[in-house]
Amino acid sequence: MAQLIEQPVVMTGEGWADYGLIDSGDGRKLERYGPHRFIRPDTQAMWRPKLERWASDGEFVPGSDEDGGGRWQFAGPVPKEGWALSRDGVRFNAQCTPFRHLGFFPDMAPVWDWMDGMLAGRSDAATLNLFGYTGVGTLSLSQFGPVTHVDASKKSVAQARENAALSGMENRPIRWIVDDAAKFTAREVRRGKRYDGIILDPPKFGRGPEGEVWRLEEHLGALVADCRDLLDEDSRFLFLTVYAVRLSSLALAGLLEEVFAGLPGVIEHGDLAVREEQEGGRLLPTAIFARWRND
Fold first, then answer.
1. What is the pLDDT confidence band of residue 208, given thresholds at 50, 70 and 90?
2. Which pLDDT belongs to residue 8?
3. What would the mean pLDDT of 130-149 be, rounded to a whole number?
4. In degrees rounded to 5, what are phi and psi of residue 71?
5. Is 113 helix (H, G, I), strand (E, B) or coil?
6. How confident is the model at residue 68 (pLDDT cuts 50, 70, 90)?
7. Phi and psi at residue 256, in whole multiples of 5°?
8. For 165-201, how does the pLDDT look when each residue is reduced to its tens digit (9 = 90+)?
9. Helices in 102-196 by DSSP H: which ranges?
10. What angle do CA 241, 58, 151 make, to 5 degrees?
11. Which residues are within 8 A (CB) of 172 and not within 5 positions of it... i.e. 6 or more apart?
């Protein structure tokens, strides 16, 4: 029976050559993405910035309502078509999107590293990336075996394939699927499929390619149960991240504890965070997670 570890874990992302959290505070953060610097809103930066002045190439100014919205304001030349970044041999395109992010989630870097450690030495591990977005995690997983990448957005899957070509990985065994994640996973269960690892990064709210409605609080439990049916006692992990919700990571862990009762291993939970690059850099939390691992 999978053992729940109640003490939370913090998975900390550090900067690398093409990305870093320079400073944060007053509800904003200053980051570098390759040659460019950007300011974005972040309500969890509740402290004061350490730097007196922030110089940037652009800032995302949020809308006035709680549901999001907003626009970019640029102070320097920023390529609209994007620019290439890299990490550990994976190359991908960064771009200022209307949704305030830049085409990938840098706080996921410690998750990619953790999955690499779970699959170290494997070349035949079958993995599933649900809500795979632009595919940086998929390309990282592809060094260990075949990957199934699923996202409801045709544009995101196309961007993921472009990132694969940019990385010279277009011939790796990756299935690129445009589909509703819940429907796809349910079909995989009916087909009797099995995976060595699953990563899922569901939104709070979303729509599938045929208008399917996703509400995290209503639908996450059924999706996790179907993911459990795609794993067995020889599988290695499931990793679940959740953003921008009024939930505790302990709630996610409790869900996994119930659903994974018939499997060995350990269930852990906690926060994802990014550390500022300055001396004594603070940790800026970004998401909560729960994970099942079978070492």
1. confident
2. 97
3. 97
4. -155, 160
5. helix
6. low
7. -65, -40
8. 999 999 999 999 999 999 999 999 999 999 999 999 9
9. 109-118, 136-141, 154-166, 181-190
10. 30
11. 139, 142, 147, 164
Are the CB atoms for 288 and 256 separated by under 8 Å?
no
Looking at residue 99, its pLDDT comes to 87
- DSSP SS3 for 242: strand
> Please, what sign has the CA dihedral across residues 212, 136, 102, 63?
positive
Strands 266-275 and 9-13: parallel
What span, in angstroms and rounded, lies between the C-alpha atoms of 76 and 6?
A: 47
The radius of gyration of the chain's CA atoms, rounded to the nearest angstrom, is 19
Backbone region of residue 17 per phi and psi (left: phi > 0; alpha: psi in -120 to 50; beta: other values): alpha
β-pair partners for 266:
3, 293
Residue 66 has what pLDDT? 55
Give the pLDDT score at 282: 98
Q: Distance between CA atoms of 269 and 6, rounded to whole angstroms? A: 8
- Residue 95 dihedral angles phi and psi, to the nearest 5°: -160, 140
- What number of other Cβ atoms are within 10 A of residue 233's Cβ? 9
Which pLDDT does position 183 carry in this prediction? 95
- In terms of Cα–Cα distance, which of 202, 208, 207, 243 is closest to 224? 202
Cβ-Cβ contacts under 8 Å for 239 (sequence gap 6 or more): 111, 114, 115, 197, 198, 199, 200, 289, 291
Looking at residues 33-55, what average pLDDT do you find? Answer: 97
Q: Which two tokens stand for residue 163?
A: 């990132």
In the chain, domain spans: 3-15+104-293
Residue 249 to residue 148: CA distance in whole angstroms: 26
State the CATH class of domain 3-15+104-293: alpha beta
Residue 64 banded pLDDT, cuts 50, 70, 90: low
